[in-house]
Amino acid sequence: MGLPYTVYPVDVFGEEQFKPEFLRLNPVAKVPVITDHDGPGGKPYTLFESGAILLYLAEKTGQFLPKADAQAAQAARLRPEVARDQQTALVGLGVPESSADLRA
Ligand SMILES: N[C@@H](CCC(=O)N[C@@H](CS)C(=O)NCC(=O)O)C(=O)O
């Protein structure tokens, strides 16, 4: 995609995903997670769920998403599903729905 990045390995078999510093990034305790240090408004933006990450990066770079045709409609249909997956995971953990919309 042409974006610079740094990889921080997380040993899930060593249960590093349950450490407080990781849970601050993803309360669901799963990889992958990204932090875009040049997110919306130039501010850092952290998100998880691989589908959400892929859509975010595709939109940010203008790559991989079709512009306007049946494929574009299909890609758009993915969005509510990604959002619902995040919501379901967070509600399952007891995180109030009001704070679960991490796309805001
Ligand atoms: N729906 C999530 C699934 C992420 C997921 O299951 N990640 C696994 C590794 S592939 C994980 O973090 N497992 C650690 C655990 O469940 O404690 C996504 O697509 O990002």
Describe, in plain words, how this protein is organized in 3D.
Strands 1-2 form a two-stranded antiparallel ribbon. The protein is built from 3 helices and 2 strands, in the order αββαα. With 104 residues, it is mostly helical. The chain starts with 19 loop residues before the first helix and ends in a 12-residue tail after the last helix. The chain is globular, with a radius of gyration of 15 Å. The protein has a single domain (16-99), classed as Glutaredoxin (3-Layer(aba) Sandwich). Helix content is 38%, strand content 8%. A hairpin with an 8-residue loop joins strand 1 (33-36) and strand 2. Bound molecules: glutathione. Glutathione (GSH) binds next to loops. Glutathione binds at residues 12, 17, 29-32, 49-50.
Question: How would the blueprint of this fold be written?
Answer:
Elements (H helix, E strand, L loop, with lengths): L19 H4 L9 E4 L8 E4 L1 H12 L8 H23 L12
Antiparallel strand pairs: 1-2
Bound molecules: glutathione (GSH).
